Amino acid sequence: MELGHYTKILRNWRLEPADTQDAVELPGSPERTVSRKAITDTEGRRWVLEEVAEESYSRKLAIAETMETLKTRGLDGIHPYERNTLGQLITCYAGRLCMLRPHVAGIPLNRKNWLEESWRAEAMAHHLIKMQLISEPSPLQNVGPLFSIADFVKRRTEVFRKHRNELAEALEPVFNNLEKNLFPKLGKAPTSFCHGDFHPLNIIWGEKSIQSVIDWEFCGLKPEAYDAALLVGCIGFDNPDALIGDFTGTLIKKTSAAAIFSPESWEWFIDLVIAIRYGWLAEWMRTNDESARDLEMLYMNLLTTQKGYIADKWGLS
Predict the structure, then answer these.
(1) Confidence at residue 246, expressed as pLDDT on a 0 to 100 scale
(2) Does the residue 109 lie in any domain?
(3) Mean pLDDT lowest for which of 19-28, 61-70, 178-187, 263-272?
(4) 90: Cβ–Cβ under 8 A, 6 or more apart, which residues?
(5) How many domains does the chain contain in total?
(6) Which of 6, 12, 141, 230 could lock 84 by a disulfide, CB 3.0 to 4.6 Å apart?
(7) Is residue 133 part of a domain?
(8) Among 17-31, 52-66, 168-182, 301-315, the least confident range
(9) 80 and 129: one domain?
């Protein structure tokens, strides 16, 4: 898109783009928008302009409204979308649906040593605690049905059995464990509003702080410990030894001490960690990443066979 088009779009927010625009690499998942671009205005402020698909209009609007609510309730690390001159969060221009949010600069995550930096565990625990404390009533107005991790795992397993039976067989101990120890309990499990994809790559990091949390596409009502379980699963996938190391220990100790989850949620926390990994397995298969897929299956079986030992190390047994 030429600069002249951006000029016309940005006038919906009374902004003018600068004559010179720098190329900026944006964090997060680009596939969740039709397109996105960092734009600097004439006052030197940088924005992210997103074009969204028509079929995602309602969901994008609900997410934008939710981010506003979270910001109003005092959650740090939230940078809501800007409303245009008509007070709208989504702007229609020349058949395009556009959204505008502040660009937040950060320090790239060092994938080699981030698990050695305990301040990150403390920062993420603080964010999870604060979000739980301000999430009643749910900030998402158009909540929709409760996300069922049990139904998701069962559907994936059926697909494996029909089309990739070797995968189903390799994961049979994992599925049997969840069917016995997790699924029957989820019906009465406490729920709350969750980010839905809370992990270090969806955080814009500062100098020992969280600058912004991004990619809220999967937010909604889920088992209350969902975000913490997803995060712990990601820690272990990066480095299995870290599951029982100081980093994870700090995260669990902080969240446990805050009493934001019920005792029941902690009882089957490790099984929730395992169940959420089916989502990552589906992602590796969607992107045809066979190496990550095979590693994921080994990891899921490791979590299953060693769950008692891991829970004991966490002080949850």
Answers:
(1) 96
(2) no
(3) 19-28
(4) 52, 57, 60, 61, 64, 97, 98, 99
(5) 2
(6) 12
(7) yes
(8) 17-31
(9) no
For residues 183 and 50, state if they share a domain: no
Is it true that the peptide bond before 137 is cis, omega within 30 degrees of 0?
Answer: yes
Whole-Å CA distances, 132 to 126, 269, 302 = 10, 16, 30
> What percentage of the chain reaches a pLDDT higher than 90?
88
Give whole-number Cα distances, 268 to 179, 189, 232, 236, 250, in Å.
Answer: 12, 10, 14, 17, 19
Whole-Å CA distances, 15 to 40, 43, 109, 285: 10, 9, 31, 42
What's the pLDDT at 28?
A: 87
Q: Phi/psi zone of residue 145: left (φ > 0), alpha (ψ -120 to 50 degrees), beta?
A: beta
CATH number where 50 lies: 3.30.200.20
Q: Rounded mean pLDDT of 68-88? A: 97
| Structure tokens that stand for 122 in this block | 């403390």
Tokens of 300: 């899921």
Query: What does R_g of the chain's alpha carbons equal in angstroms?
Result: 21
Instruction: Note down the domain range covering 12.
Output: 3-102
What count of other Cβ atoms lies within 10 Å of the Cβ of residue 313?
Answer: 16
Residue 280's nearest CA partner among 298, 293, 267, 262 is: 293
Question: For 95-150, what is each residue's pLDDT tens digit?
Answer: 999 999 999 999 999 999 999 999 999 999 999 999 999 998 888 876 567 789 99
Whether residue 273 lies inside any domain: the answer is: yes
